[in-house]
Amino acid sequence: MARQARVILPNTPHHIMQRGHNRQVVFASDEDFQYYRENLQLFKDEFCCKIYSYCLMTNHVHLIVNPGDNPESLSLLMKRVAGRQTRYVNKLEKRSGSLWEGRFKSSIISSQEYLISCSRYIELNPMRAGMVEDPSVYQWSSFSKKAKGKPDAVVDYDRVYTALGNTAAERQKAYIEYVSQTIPEDELKLLSESIQRNQVTGGNRFREQLEKKLKMKLSNRGPGRPRKVGK
Prior knowledge:
It is a single chain. The protein contains 9 helices and 4 strands. The chain is of the alpha+beta class. The chain has a single domain, classed as Alpha-Beta Plaits, CATH 3.30.70.1290. Strands 2-3-1-4 form a 4-stranded antiparallel sheet, sandwiched between helices. Helix 1 runs antiparallel to helix 2. It is globular, with a radius of gyration of 17 Å.
């Protein structure tokens, strides 16, 4: 499976995934999850990043991160959070070595085409893994803030989400309805393959615009635009 060199852009959302070394357990207790989330909040503020969605699974994490004006902020955020978690777990378990599997994976997201669908993909991870039957009962994701208004300082609202309604209640209702829809198979495949290969999450037109801007070739495979979200 061909992978693309990682490209980080300013003021652009990126789907980020990082796995445990050899897919080993990273979060063994609620305290482990909480420690990671606290550091995510701390360093996203320090490096002026925005986090639109997240889901912390037992052996990997998914995030949607906008690095702001400085593309390097994304890598700095991931390095600090991953490093702290490694030291924390190694101290607890009286061990040494790497907690994570190499470098994180990253996919540039076309906001208008795939930002909200990528959020849904991330927040439904616990359901696809058979851990829960309702994403709102999984406490280590961004779903409850966007769907229920639960306080979560990690999460920033993106423009696609805020456009779902004029009030918080309208946005929450529209988001719940959207997430409850069946995800088209071609969309699911695109979202999965894009992050696995460090490819663009977007249609051909978006990819071609990026190629022209970056003056480099970006490989990509996938369908066109997904269904639009109504209010």
